[in-house]
Structure formats: C-alpha cells, structure tokens
C-alpha cells in the first residue's frame, strides 16, 4: 500500500495552536534544549536518565546492539525495581509520603504511604518465597484495581520473579492461554471486585482456567468482596499467608536485562502476543517520560491515570513510572458512572488531582454525557491532561482542554504501544505549541519517522508508515518464547527499522499525526483515506459524540466509506432522519473533500470496543459488508453487536 502521496492533504479545519501556559513553561522539568542534548549524544542522554535510578552495580555499556534487533541496555548493570520504586524513597526520608490514595468503587478508601508500601510489598515477597516462587519464575496476576495489584507486581520484582498481569475482564480461556504460554507457577487473584455497583466475581474464572493449566501450583486469593468462593486444595488466602509474614525483606538485585514482566497485547487485531519487558531500560524510560511528559513535581502534584493496570498504560504509568519518581497517585477501582456520571470529577476534586491521564474513548463518552457533568465539579487543580490509546479527534482534544482542563491545561497526546513500553511521541507540556489531534514530535532520545512503502522518509506534508529508527531503552526485547515472531512482526517490514503497524503523516511543520492502524486504512477510488480522519471529521459536527468508520467492498470505488455514528446526548431534534444523515455526509465532504464523503451513515446506540476501550472496526466491517459477525470474544460488552444488528436490520 502506498499512502505517501495520496493521503488527504488537509486535516480538518481546526488550526488553533495552544502554547504552554507561561508559568508551566518557566518551571518545566524538561525544556526545549533536551531535544538538542539527546540528538547530540543519544546514548549519553539515556545514560544520564538512567542515573535517576539507584543501581547496585553500575553498567559497563549503555547499549549493546551487536545482534539486532535483540537489544541489551545498561549491560552489566544491576538493580532492583521494587527498591527503586519503594525502599529508596523511604530511605530518603519520604516514608510518610502517600504513594496511593486508593478509592474503592463503593466509596471505601485506603491510603498507602511509601512506608506502608514497603511493608506490604516485603510481606508479599516473603509469602511468594514461602509458596515456592523463585527468581525467574512466572507469576500470573488476575486482580481488580485494588492495592494488592501493584503490591503483587512489586513483590514479584522484589524477588526477581516475572509477572504476567491479565486484565480482570478476560475470560477463563484467555487467562488459561496466557498462563500456559508463560508457564506461570502461581496465580494471584481475588474473590472479586466491584463494578457498576455490584461485586463481580473473579475466582470462579480462575478456577476454570487453572483446571486446565498444569503449571499452576497455588492460587493466592485476596478477599475483596466477601462473596463465597469454591475452595480447592491449591488455594491459599492472602490474609492467611501474606499477613503473617515478616515485614523485612531485602530486595534482590537483578541484571539490567532480567525479565520484569510479560504482557499480552490486547488483541484488537489478532492473536495476543506475550510482549517481554526487562528491568533497567524499562524503568529508566518509564521514569523519564513520566517526569517529562507530565512535568511531575513529586512534592506537590497528585497524579491520576484512569487506565486499568491490566494494560500497559497501567503498568508504566500507574505503577512503575510514578513510583520510580516518588509520585503521589490516585488508584480507582471502579467505573466512571458509578454511582453517578460525575464520579471521576468528584475524585479529582476530592484529592486535588493535578495531572490526569485517560483515553479518547473515555473523553468521547463524557462528551456524549454532556458538559454540565464536569462543570458541576471543581477541576481547577488540573494542570496537565494526557490522552493515550487511540488517535484523539481534534474535537475531543478541544473539548478535553475546555471542559476538563479549564481551557488552560495542556493536552499531551501520547503515542506508544505495549511493545514500546513507554511514551515515544508526545508534546512536552512546557515546550510544545499543541495542535489538536497531533502527537507532535518524538520525545528526546527517540528517533522516529514516517516512511513510504520502500522505507524512505516522506517529505513534510506526506503520509505513510510510522517507524522507529533507533533502539530505545524500554523497547520490547522479544515476544515471549518466539524470537522469530518478534523479528518477523516488528523488524521485517523495513530493513533495520521498527515497524509499529500504525499509519501517520507529517504536516507542513514536520509534526506527526497518527492515522490509525495500517490495516484500517481505506482505499477509495485509488485514494488512501484513513479511518481516523473521517472519524474526526464526523466528530467535529456539533451533534456527533462518537464515530467509527470502515471501508466496505464496493463495486464502483473499490472500497466505500461506511460510518457508524452515535449522536451527542444534547443533540436533540431528529438525529435519525435522512436530512440529518445528509447533513453529516455534506459536513465530511466539506471538511475533507468529496472523496471522503461516506457512502452510508448508520446511527447506532453503541460501538463495539475491546476491553481496553478501542473501537473494533473488524466487526463493523462485517456489518457493512452484510456478513455474519466474526469472533466477538474480545469485546468488552458482547451485547453491543446485537444492539447494532437490531437497530440495523437493513444492514443484515
Ligand atoms: P493489538 O496489538 O493486540 O492489536 P493494541 O495495539 O490495541 O492491541 P496497545 O499496545 O495497547 O494494543 O495499543 C497500541 C496502539 O494503540 C498503537 O499501535 C496505536 O494504534 C494506538 N495508539 C496508542 N496511543 C495512540 C495515540 N496517542 N494516537 C494514536 N494512536 C494511538
Ligand atoms: Mg498493537
């Protein structure tokens, strides 16, 4: 596919630029000179960032790239992640500082200081040892968003065990596949967690998964909801085994390249892959990017990332980055609309959250629910607000800035992947003049570009494939147990370049705009059109809350654009009739050009999304092409496709 010349030249009409607030620019952690510093000596730059951490043995070499694409960072160095995230802050006199303000969905709370965290993590580490877990063993973790989740991860890191966190919404089959692939020795779970006002069970799913997973020796169960669970001989209760352990444990230094965790990608596109992250480089880049992109001032900021720890965003920006930096964070168990649709804003006001990180899917949901909900809460503490997971539509960016960021907080649109481990492309809040919808520039120390189908950089104004050109500290090291798959998936499309699988364009200033997955790009009458651009055009209509776009086979144009639209709650009037649909089609044509005009627009109540909140266009393509709907097992809500089919009998 050649996207280079034919990508739509104009990205919507939103041309405003947002300069950083003067005081933020003045006192920013990272200033413009960081780009030059890193460009002049990239490895020296990363070596300086690694000095944010405490190493028990210094490294001999920053990067060993003698056997590409298998990287080794900080060769010969030794450190312990739990020591860096917990103990050293206590040793520095910050034991009383809050690490997590935890908020349970029913309204119960727990406050964990760094000293509390050291005690809890030490006890959990001792318990794992008692249960026979040793350095290098794998531990599966299947927990809701309760403090025992980060505690378990850090306990693994403390003894050198490799964790594999599986999102608590996954099925028994999905859990079993991941346990098997990693040959995990124990699973840490709970009786359940709270979701949408009710206890939601987890243990039964683990029982089912583990019945077919012979590698598991024990199931360690946290009591959260108090609901009854079936007892098996392999089960042990957290409150029995962990609570009686010694509060003393000395973290075990491990090699910089020791496996810290495996995390399976969410499977938006295909079979989940076990992405392997290691120790020194991973912690260096998560700590640096959290410091740089959120401008974290650990003494005064309160930080909240609303992701689930089951995704990479939670690993890097709820657990490892913030704790390595000694931050105070909020950790929230539940859903945004329980008990009411203002819950998140209430939490921000309650804790005085100053740095906030969420996903476009959430932002669009809030737009749909209406402006008056956030307006009823005091959000004036917010000073930097971030986005991750999908391209953020310019309309959603501006709404986020206006209604959540009080019109002044910079929006940092952060592009990265499970595979990259940390943020790669993002504005710097004290430096960058933000453009709504653009991730802007690779961070200092990151070398990324947009190339055409021959791997040549496209000129400014051109579009193509996003690639990373030089290894980076938190890069995946391989796919667990599948070196060949690692090389094939990421390093074979273009010689010597990391292929991210996303389309992107460079605007006239050379700033980067993400255009969605390469697989989602549509070919209409010989023109490459990105789903992201058409979706953003639709969302820029005042009556549209969310939109998904797919290319459906068309006898005339090759592919035709089919759109699925959710109107805004406040839209009013007739949002079903022909006239409205025509208005939307004309709006897209006016915004992007006639070639991008959708052949068909369907008004739907919901869109199919993965459990991490990303639109599953594959299923919508089935609807658009009148096929029976494919595998829906990774959908967050399995009933959504029924709702859509009911609504669209004509689409069947
Ligand atoms: P799978 O690889 O299993 O299909 P996934 O790609 O959804 O799942 P993640 O690693 O969580 O799993 O997501 C990374 C992808 O999310 C990126 O490749 C990109 O497509 C998208 N993405 C993340 N952040 C942004 C962003 N700021 N702008 C645009 N796209 C983004
Ligand atoms: Mg992916």
Automatic annotation (TrEMBL):
It is an enzyme of class 6 (ligase). GO terms for molecular function: acetate-CoA ligase activity. Acetylated. Deacetylation by the SIR2-homolog deacetylase activates the enzyme. It catalyses: acetate + ATP + CoA = acetyl-CoA + AMP + diphosphate. The modification N6-acetyllysine is found at residue 614. Residues 533-614 form the AMP-binding enzyme C-terminal domain. ATP binds at residues 389-391, 413-418, 502, 517. Mg(2+) binds at residues 539, 541, 544. SUPFAM superfamilies: Acetyl-CoA synthetase-like. Keywords: Acetylation, ATP-binding, Ligase, Magnesium, Metal-binding, Nucleotide-binding. Residues 92-472 form the AMP-dependent synthetase/ligase domain. The keyword Transmembrane helix does not apply. NCBIfam families: Ac_CoA_lig_AcsA, PRK00174.1. HAMAP family: Ac_CoA_synth. Belongs to the ATP-dependent AMP-binding enzyme family. Catalyzes the conversion of acetate into acetyl-CoA (AcCoA), an essential intermediate at the junction of anabolic and catabolic pathways. AcsA undergoes a two-step reaction. In the first half reaction, AcsA combines acetate with ATP to form acetyl-adenylate (AcAMP) intermediate. In the second half reaction, it can then transfer the acetyl group from AcAMP to the sulfhydryl group of CoA, forming the product AcCoA. This is Acetyl-coenzyme A synthetase. It comes from Actinomadura sediminis.
């Amino acid at each position: 596919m050649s996207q280079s010349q034919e990508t739509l030249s104009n990205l919507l009409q939103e041309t405003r630029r947002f300069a950083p607030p003067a005081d933020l620019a003045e006192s920013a952690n990272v200033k413009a000179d960081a780009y030059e510093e890193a460009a002049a000596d990239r490895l020296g730059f990363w070596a300086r960032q690694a000095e944010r951490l405490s190493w028990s043995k210094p490294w001999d070499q920053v990067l060993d790239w003698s056997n590409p694409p298998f990287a080794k960072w900080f060769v010969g160095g030794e450190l312990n992640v739990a020591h860096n995230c917990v103990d050293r802050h206590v040793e520095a006199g910050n034991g009383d500082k809050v690490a997590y303000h935890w908020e349970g969905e029913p309204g119960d709370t727990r406050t964990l200081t760094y000293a509390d965290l050291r005690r809890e993590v030490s006890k959990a580490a001792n318990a794992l040892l008692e249960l026979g877990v040793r350095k290098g063993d794998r531990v599966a973790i299947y927990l809701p968003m309760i403090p025992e989740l980060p505690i378990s991860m850090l306990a693994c890191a403390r003894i050198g065990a490799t964790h594999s966190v599986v999102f608590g919404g996954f099925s028994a089959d999905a859990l079993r596949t991941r346990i098997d692939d990693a040959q995990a020795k124990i699973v840490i779970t709970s009786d359940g967690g709270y979701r949408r006002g009710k206890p939601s069970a987890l243990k039964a799913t683990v029982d089912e998964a583990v019945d077919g997973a012979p590698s598991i020796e024990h199931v360690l169960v946290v009591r959260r909801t108090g609901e009854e669970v079936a007892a098996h001989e392999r089960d042990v209760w957290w409150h029995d085994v962990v609570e009686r352990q010694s509060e003393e444990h000395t973290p075990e230094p491990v090699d910089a390249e020791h496996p810290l965790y495996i995390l399976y990608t969410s499977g938006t596109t295909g079979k989940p892959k076990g992405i392997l992250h290691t120790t020194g480089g991973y912690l260096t880049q998560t700590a640096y990017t959290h410091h740089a992109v959120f401008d974290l001032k650990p003494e005064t900021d309160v930080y909240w990332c609303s992701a689930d720890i089951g995704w990479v965003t939670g690993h890097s920006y709820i657990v490892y980055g913030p704790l390595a930096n000694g931050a105070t964070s909020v950790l929230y168990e539940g859903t945004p609309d329980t008990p009411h649709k203002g819950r998140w804003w209430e939490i921000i006001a309650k804790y005085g959250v100053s740095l906030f990180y969420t996903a476009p899917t959430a932002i669009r949901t809030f737009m749909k629910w209406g402006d008056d909900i956030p307006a009823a809460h005091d959000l004036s503490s917010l000073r930097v607000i971030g986005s991750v997971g999908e391209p953020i539509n310019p309309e959603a960016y501006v709404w986020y800035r206006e209604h959540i960021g009080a019109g002044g907080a910079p929006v940092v649109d952060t592009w990265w992947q499970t595979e990259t481990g940390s943020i790669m492309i993002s504005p710097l809040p004290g430096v960058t003049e933000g453009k709504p919808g653009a991730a802007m520039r690779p961070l200092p120390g990151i070398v990324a570009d947009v190339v055409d189908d021959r791997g040549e950089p496209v000129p400014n104004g051109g579009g193509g494939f996003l690639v990373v050109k030089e290894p980076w500290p938190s890069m995946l090291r391989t796919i667990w147990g599948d070196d060949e798959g690692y090389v094939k998936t990421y390093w074979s499309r273009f010689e010597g370049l990391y292929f991210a699988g996303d389309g992107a364009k460079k605007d006239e200033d050379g700033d980067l705009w993400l255009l969605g997955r390469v697989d989602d790009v549509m070919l209409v009458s010989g023109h490459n059109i990105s789903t992201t651009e058409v979706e953003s055009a639709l969302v820029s209509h005042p009556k549209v809350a969310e939109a998904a776009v797919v290319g459906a086979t068309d006898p005339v144009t090759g592919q035709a654009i089919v759109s699925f639209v959710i109107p805004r709650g406040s839209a009013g009037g007739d949002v079903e009739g022909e006239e409205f649909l025509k208005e939307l089609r004309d709006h897209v044509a006016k915004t992007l050009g006639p070639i991008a005009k959708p052949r068909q627009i369907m008004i739907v109540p919901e869109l199919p999304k993965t459990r991490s909140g990303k639109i599953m266009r594959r299923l919508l393509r089935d609807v658009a092409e009148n096929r029976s709907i494919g595998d829906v097992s990774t959908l967050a809500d399995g009933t959504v496709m029924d709702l859509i089919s009911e609504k669209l009998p004509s689409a069947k």
